[in-house]
């Protein structure tokens, strides 16, 4: 027999579609090993990434730092919907929204959609609050930190720069 089904997939990170018949092995047959078929599939999805960014490697609390970056849609579909970019201060180079300290949110995006290969830039001066922790830290520039977009890859959404942050200049 044959049948047709429409399948909606909400996660673009799957690479294979698995078909299995007689899942519960309720049919008595001589060969149960031919009941599975795996087919490689290609999903078309947006893929935001940060190919270039310039962040400082030293600053003092209370200083204004300059941040420039390019955000590109390297995916095969337009990025549409709501997302934003943000700068975080972290003790390591791995983004963790539950631990890292938000320094600044940048403009939201999504309207108009960002077509494949299109990009936009961030070019901003940011005041480092005196309430931030000093010492050896990392500045993390993150696109779509809330993961509002379903992307081909989330692993390229962070640009990390080590930074030595001194205490505020009290003179």
Structural write-up:
The protein is an all-beta fold and 171 residues long. 0% of the residues lie in helices and 43% in strands. It has no helices and ten strands. The protein has strands at residues 16-20, 36-40, 48-54, 58-60, 64-73, 83-90, 101-109, 119-127, 135-143, 158-166. The strands form three sheets. Strands 4-10-9-6-7 form a five-stranded mixed sheet, with no helix packed on it. Strands 3-5-8 form a three-stranded antiparallel sheet, with no helix packed on it. A two-stranded antiparallel ribbon has the order 1-2. The protein is elongated, with a radius of gyration of 23 Å. It starts with 15 loop residues before the first strand and ends in a 5-residue tail after the last strand. The model has no long low-confidence stretch (mean pLDDT 89).
């Amino acid at each position: 027999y044959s049948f047709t089904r429409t399948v909606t997939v909400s996660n673009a990170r799957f690479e294979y579609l698995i078909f299995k018949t007689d899942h519960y092995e309720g049919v008595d047959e001589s060969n149960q090993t031919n009941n599975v078929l795996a087919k490689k599939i290609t999903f078309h999805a947006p893929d935001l990434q940060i190919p270039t960014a310039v962040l400082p490697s030293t600053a003092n609390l209370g200083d204004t730092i300059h941040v420039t970056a390019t955000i590109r849609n390297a995916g095969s579909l337009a990025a549409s919907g709501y997302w934003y970019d943000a700068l975080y201060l972290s003790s390591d180079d791995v983004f963790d929204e539950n631990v890292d300290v938000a320094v600044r949110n940048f403009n939201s995006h999504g309207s108009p959609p960002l077509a494949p290969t299109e990009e936009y830039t961030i070019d901003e001066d940011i005041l480092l609050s005196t309430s931030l922790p000093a010492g050896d830290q990392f500045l993390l520039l993150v696109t779509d930190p809330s993961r509002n977009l379903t992307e081909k890859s989330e692993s390229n959404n962070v640009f990390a720069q080590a930074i030595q942050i001194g205490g505020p200049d009290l003179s």
